[in-house]
Design goal:
Helix 2 packs antiparallel against helix 3 and helix 3 packs antiparallel against helix 4. The relative contact order is 0.11. The protein starts with about 20 loop residues before the first helix and ends in a 6-residue tail after the last helix. It is mainly α. The protein contains five helices and no strands. About 55% of the residues lie in helices and about 0% in strands. It is globular. It has one domain.
Length: about 140
C-alpha cells in the first residue's frame, strides 16, 4: 500500500499488483480510456443515444468533457475542469515554494496549450460522421 496519502486519487497506483508493475497498470488504465473513447465506440454511443431519443449533442458534450480530462490533464474527469486552479504557495509539506518567475509563465503556458489541444479535440470530435448530423443548426 502507498504510504503517501496524496497519491490516493483516481489515477495513481496505490497498491501493488502480484504480476503487473505500476507502469503496466498505469498503461492499461490509460489504454482503457482510449478504447472506450475510440471513434468507433463514440459513434456507437451516439447512435444509441438517438435510438433512446436522448439529445445526441448533449451526449457528445458529456463524452468530450470526460475524455478531455484524462487526455489533456491526465486526471480523472471528476478532478478536472476547464481551468484547474493552482496556487504557487500551495505546496506539500517539505516542498520548496516555487519562484513567481517560473510558476506564472508555466501556468500561462499550461492554460494556453491545454486550450489549443482542447480546440483540436473538439474539431476531431465534430468530424465524426454521427456528430455532423446531430449538431445544432447554429453550429453547422
Amino acid at each position: 500500500m502507498e504510504r503517501d496519502l496524496n497519491q490516493y486519487d483516481l489515477v495513481h497506483v496505490t497498491t501493488r499488483h502480484p504480476r503487473m508493475s505500476d507502469d503496466e497498470l498505469r498503461a492499461i488504465y490509460y489504454k482503457a480510456w482510449d478504447i472506450y473513447y475510440s471513434p468507433e465506440h463514440v459513434e456507437r454511443v451516439i447512435r444509441r443515444t438517438k435510438l433512446w431519443n436522448y439529445d445526441p449533442y448533449n451526449m457528445m458534450a458529456k463524452l468530450f468533457s470526460f475524455y478531455e480530462a484524462i487526455k489533456l490533464d491526465g486526471v480523472h474527469p471528476l478532478e478536472s475542469g476547464l481551468f484547474r486552479r493552482k496556487y504557487r504557495l500551495d505546496r506539500r509539506p517539505g516542498m520548496p515554494i516555487e519562484s513567481s518567475l517560473s510558476f506564472y509563465p508555466r501556468q500561462a503556458w499550461e492554460v494556453l496549450s491545454k486550450h489549443v489541444r482542447l480546440a483540436a479535440l473538439v474539431l476531431a470530435l465534430l468530424a465524426y460522421p454521427q456528430a455532423r448530423s446531430t449538431r445544432p443548426q447554429h453550429l453547422r
